[in-house]
C-alpha cells in the first residue's frame, strides 16, 4: 500500500473511533514556550518526552539542524507569531549530537539533485542569478556553534521583545539527555 493510501485508511479509523479526543487542546501553548528543533526523525517522540512536554504544551518549529538561516525567513516568522499571537514567552533552540547537517556537503547534494532529474542548467542559472547554492546548502562544523548562532539571531532580532528568554540546548538523539549551551535567563539577568 502506498503511504498516502495507508495514512488515509488509518485516519478513517482514527476519526471513527474518536481517538482524537485525548489530544484536544487549544492553539495556545500551555508552557508558553516555542521550541525550534531539528527535523531529525530520532527526535520526533524522544524530544517532547525528554523535555516532559505533552500535546498542547509548546509551539514546535522544525528546520534542518535547528538553524535560523535568515532573520526574516519563515522560521523567524513562526517564532514571532508564537510570541505575539499565541502567547509564547520563551524560545528554546534544540540542536542534537550526530546531526546530519554537520556532514552536509553542498556539492554532493547538488550532484544528487542532478541524479534525481534536476537539470544542471537550472543549477547554473540559479548560481548566475545570484543564488549561492553552496552557501544555501551548507551545514555546520560544530553543533554547539550552530545552536549559539541561531540563539544569537533570535535574541538580537529587532522585533523580539526584550523580556523573552532565548535558550540553546543540545539533545542526545539516543538517550534524550539535554545539555545547556545558552541559558537565556542568565542573559536577561545580566542585561538587568
TrEMBL record:
Pfam families: Pro_CA. Binds 1 zinc ion per subunit. It catalyses: hydrogencarbonate + H(+) = CO2 + H2O. SMART domains: Pro_CA (SM00947). Its EC number is 4.2.1.1. GO terms for molecular function: carbonate dehydratase activity; zinc ion binding. SUPFAM superfamilies: beta-carbonic anhydrase, cab. It comes from the Bacteria. Its cofactor is Zn(2+). Zn(2+) binds at residues 38, 40, 96, 99. Keywords: Metal-binding, Zinc. Belongs to the beta-class carbonic anhydrase family. This is carbonic anhydrase.
